[in-house]
Task: structure prediction
Amino acid sequence: MLRNHDRMWGLVFLSPWMVGFLLFTAGPMLTSLWFSLTDYNLAKPDSVQFIGLRNWGHMLQDPLVGQSLLVTLKFLLWSVPIGLVFPLGLAVLLHSEHLMGKALFRTLFYAPQMIPGVAAALIYTAMFNPQGPINAFLNAIGIGAQDGFSDARLVMPALTIVGLAGIGNTMILMLSGLQSVPRELYESATIDGANGWTSFWRISVPMISPVIFYNLVLAVIGSFQYFTTAYLLYEGQGGPENSALFYMLNLYKEGFVFFNMGYASTLAWAMFVLCMIVTAVLFGTSKRWVYYAGGD
Result:
């Protein structure tokens, strides 16, 4: 009787989350799945027809889908390695016993994380403007002004640099991981003759590999979902020569510019499946390099 009473109260406390999940996650997902099988157009909501897999076939033949996916993959290859190496390096520096003012540096590196995306994009536009402070500095040292957002060759490096402003959260997580590594391991390695570089690769990296893996998964999924900054910087367009036409930007244009909500739903589900596959591959390969203390 008591067990049934506890189960009832458990369901009562879970019910707000369950209702919210059904209304705001599961419901919209199932609705978009249905839309992907129709020709639903926001401009003609009363003339919806079931067309089966026609949207999926069109997606496979749409050159913009391939182009936007390639742009997204390029950004992933740029941003993910740099977005992991930089915060790891900062975490190592902040973990050093010889650094003064650690709390101040942690705050300074994390502060940009709290700037809203719209405000951050406006700041980046002003900073990288041909007459902005960054190009003024480049002119002063003799390199010359570089308009990274207008040059198709520099779009990916420029957006990657912009993304470095948001590494504060990753840095904090990696710093927390480094602080959890037992000091005895480093002391034993020093006695055995290991230098700092060897200790870093043989002790620090394996011990914080779960943290690195967690941030890797988030970074990969975040790269596939990249949208806000590119949308604001290029006013919803694809940038020079479509070099900033990210997959999610193309999806947005199909749904809310051309009103092809059925086709946009197809693109959304295709991205969902792609993210699931990539995540499964990452988890499958993690067994080879992610170390869990106390694991097999």
Q: What stands out?
A: The chain has a mean pLDDT of 89. The longest helix spans residues 2-35. The chain has one domain: 60-287. The chain has 14 helices and no strands.
